[in-house]
Specification:
It is built from 11 helices and 13 strands. By secondary structure, the protein is an alpha+beta fold. It is globular. A 7-stranded mixed beta sheet has the order 8-10-7-11-9-12-13.
Length: 340
């Protein structure tokens, strides 16, 4: 089948894009989208790229999964600020031979995420490219003064992780080792479950290929004022904790024992290195006072993700130490960083 033209692809997106929101005055069809957040809300904006050969391999990343994940990583940034989504832009570049079923499957995954997280697709761009490249810009809204920043950590507060760590790294390492041709075999979450073979493998593959940003948790934390600083774990626990410390001008200690429940969520257990430097976890990492932690423990919703207090903020220049077996050692960040 011959490649589809750009305007035909845009028309197909417009016809299938059913997620609507009052904050969208004008979406696809004009030179610009027009968004109108309610009241005096502040606007949050984030952009993420996924590039073939750098962030994923097309052979083991089905098109529908790539569509889902490309939106999920930006929604996770909104979650980290406590923001409620108002819309998104999609810039997609792909080879001409992928403008048929590959394009349709990509958009199916992307629009499923739009519907689940209430993120209307309001515009974007499509271009031809030798490789697949996806850029998503997501918009959110928060009441004035309520956005949660990285810079609020203070000595004496506690460090908490909401969600899982290390599973995505386990999934990536399995994919890199086995090099499966998943793009030709899988298109749904159920397909992935059946193909994986064991619950542990399925959980690791889901974490990497079909991550679920903790949007509801981030919004709940913000509405209840339970974080002094927060970030999503995309580059790795240590790398992202270091971002908080640098912005806040403080140091941190992590208790190795407190990480053990995160290591044993699957069999075989996750290595400590996977938890510390794995990346692409899309958990939430926050600092809170003892009082804030007490409220979180007592009042969190029934469907709230599991969470663990793993350390504390201390005075000092930005650095992270691990307390293990009565000793203390300085940790180095080895999370993902482009051009390194």
């Amino acid at each position: 089948m011959s490649p589809r033209a750009e305007f035909d692809l845009i028309a197909r997106i417009r016809n299938r894009n059913l997620t609507a929101k009052a904050s969208v005055r004008t979406g696809i069809g004009d030179d610009c989208a027009v968004l109108a957040p309610s009241g005096e809300n502040e606007v949050t904006v984030t952009t993420d790229m996924l590039v073939e050969g750098v962030d994923f391999e097309r052979t083991w990343m089905p098109a529908a999964f790539l569509g889902w994940k490309s939106l999920a990583v930006s929604v996770s940034d909104l979650a980290a600020m406590g923001a409620e989504p108002t819309g998104c832009l999609l810039a997609l570049a792909l080879p001409p031979e992928l403008t048929d079923s590959y394009f349709d499957n990509f958009m199916e995954g992307f629009l499923q995420g739009c519907e689940l997280w209430s993120v209307p697709l309001v515009g974007g761009d499509i271009s031809s490219s030798p490789i697949v490249s996806v850029t998503v810009t997501a918009f959110g809204a928060v009441p004035p003064g309520q956005a949660i920043y990285r810079r609020g950590a203070r000595p004496g507060t506690f460090i908490t992780v909401i969600g899982d760590l290390g599973l995505s790294r386990r999934g990536l390492e399995l994919l890199q080792k086995e090099q499966p041709l998943l793009s030709e075999q899988l298109s749904t979450r159920d397909d992935l479950e059946r193909w994986s073979g064991t619950p542990g493998r399925a959980r690791a593959f889901r974490a990497h290929l079909l991550p679920r940003p903790l949007l509801s948790a981030g919004i709940w934390i913000r509405k209840n004022g339970l974080a002094e600083s927060m970030i999503d774990v995309s580059d790795g626990l240590l790398a992202d904790l270091q971002h908080i410390l640098q912005e806040s001008g403080v140091a941190a200690e992590i208790d190795a024992e407190s990480l053990e429940p995160l290591q044993t969520v699957v069999k075989p257990s996750l290595e400590l290195e996977m938890l510390l430097n794995g990346g692409e976890d899309y958990a939430l990492l926050l600092t809170s006072t003892r009082e804030q932690l007490g409220i979180m423990n007592e009042r969190h919703p029934e469907d709230f993700p599991r969470f663990f207090t793993i350390g504390r903020v201390i005075q000092g220049s930005p650095s992270i130490s691990l307390l293990e077996g009565g000793s203390k050692r300085l940790l180095s960040c080895k999370g993902f960083e482009h051009f390194r």
